[in-house]
Amino acid sequence: QVQLVESGGGLVQAGGSLRLSCAASGRIFSIYTMGWYRQAPGKQRELVAAITRGGSTNYADSVKGRFTISRDNAKNTAYLQMNSLKPDDTAVYYCNAQARGLSGPTDNYWGQGTQVTVSS
């Protein structure tokens, strides 16, 4: 029903910036909360930031003041602006959306992930 495609990952030096995008497509009725998660090797997937349809946000303590989540409801797209990147931010970043398709209940959707690598 709903597909999520991330883009914008890559290799950056410590202190640098990257902007991730997550575009939702498919037979969409509505997209509710969108979020970014990350998973580093050997670690559990963790929430980085989330944003409601109305624009309320929450962040992991480790990224507060450095990362900013935003969304464009008209484009069904969420963004994650990452500044002052640290080697500890290295992970695969996944987009998540709570969404309802045209012919189904609200469900939880995931993108395929995009690699972010921060070199020291």
Q: What do these coordinates show?
A:
There is one protein chain. This protein has 120 residues and is mostly beta strands. Helices cover 0% and strands 62% of the residues. The chain has no helices and eleven strands. The protein has strands spanning 2-7, 10-13, 18-26, 28-39, 46-51, 57-59, 67-72, 77-82, 91-101, 106-110, 114-119. The mean pLDDT is 96.
Describe the structure using short key phrases:
seven-stranded mixed β-sheet, four-stranded antiparallel β-sheet, 120 residues, 0% helix, mainly beta, single chain
Chart the SSEs and their pairings.
Blueprint lengths: L1 E6 L2 E4 L4 E9 L1 E12 L6 E6 L5 E3 L7 E6 L4 E6 L8 E11 L4 E5 L3 E6 L1
Parallel strand pairs: 2-11
Antiparallel strand pairs: 1-3, 3-8, 4-5, 4-9, 5-6, 7-8, 9-10, 9-11
Instruction: Give the CA-CA distance, first to last residue.
Output: 40 Å
Order of helices and strands: EEEEEEEEEEE
User: How many helix segments?
Assistant: 0
Could you tell me the radius of gyration in angstroms? 14 Å
Write down how many β-strands occur, each being a DSSP E stretch of 2 or more residues.
Answer: 11
Q: Please indicate the percent range of residues in DSSP E strands (runs of 2 or more).
A: over 45%
How much helical structure, as a percent, in the residues? under 10%
Query: Segments where pLDDT lies below 50 for 5+ residues?
Result: none
Return the average pLDDT rounded to an integer.
96
Biggest beta sheet summary = 7 strands, mixed
How does the helix and strand content classify structurally? mainly beta
Which descriptor suits the 3D outline?
A: elongated
